[in-house]
Amino acid sequence: MTKNRVATMIDRMRPRVAALDVEAAKKLDEDMAVDFSDHFAYQEAQARAHVEGLLSPEEATIVYSSLGEIMSDENGGWTKGTDTATKVTVTKLIGELISARVEGRTLKPARLS
Fold first, then answer.
1. What would the mean pLDDT of 78-85 be, rounded to a whole number?
2. In Å, what is the CA distance from 75 to each residue of 32, 50, 54, 69?
3. C-alpha dihedral over 4, 56, 102, 44, to 10 degrees?
4. Alpha helix locations (H) across the chain?
5. How far is 35 from 56, CA to CA, in rounded Å?
6. How far, in Å, CA of 43 to CA of 49, rounded?
7. Domain coordinates of the chain in residue numbers?
8. For residues 74 and 36, what is the distance between their CA atoms, to the nearest angstrom?
9. What whole-number distance in Å separates Cα of residue 11 and Cα of residue 1?
């Protein structure tokens, strides 16, 4: 069975978010809000990464389900119940995927962990 790198990254992020004071945690969560164009770009990047074999089906599902099929006006555009650690992790992951594509770099799956 393959290790789910996205789930592992989220698990590593949770204590870091929990260690923040209330105001810092609130600001971080607000900073992770996505608008329609972000939502579309995130979903497109995860779908492309999955098709290219960079993300396993399980990893792509975490990204997909954290955002939802359509953007939600609740929870900063993320699916209801998506926590801050997941938002931070998915945002970082998508940033890496998009940066590699823009720069023409080949991103190896191990780079995502």
1. 96
2. 10, 25, 28, 14
3. -110
4. 5-18, 22-31, 36-51, 57-67, 84-103
5. 26
6. 10
7. 5-104
8. 13
9. 18
Give the chain's mean pLDDT. Answer: 90
Q: Look at the alpha carbons of 4, 5, 11, 14 in this order and tell me if their dihedral is positive or negative.
A: negative
Cα–Cα distances (Å) from 52 to 3, 61, 83, in that order, read: 18, 15, 27
Burial class (CB in 10 A: 0-12, 13-18, 19+), 30: exposed
Distance between CA atoms of residues 84 and 78, nearest Å: 10
Residues composing the chain? 113
First-to-last C-alpha distance (Å) of the chain: 16
Supply the pTM of this predicted model: 0.88
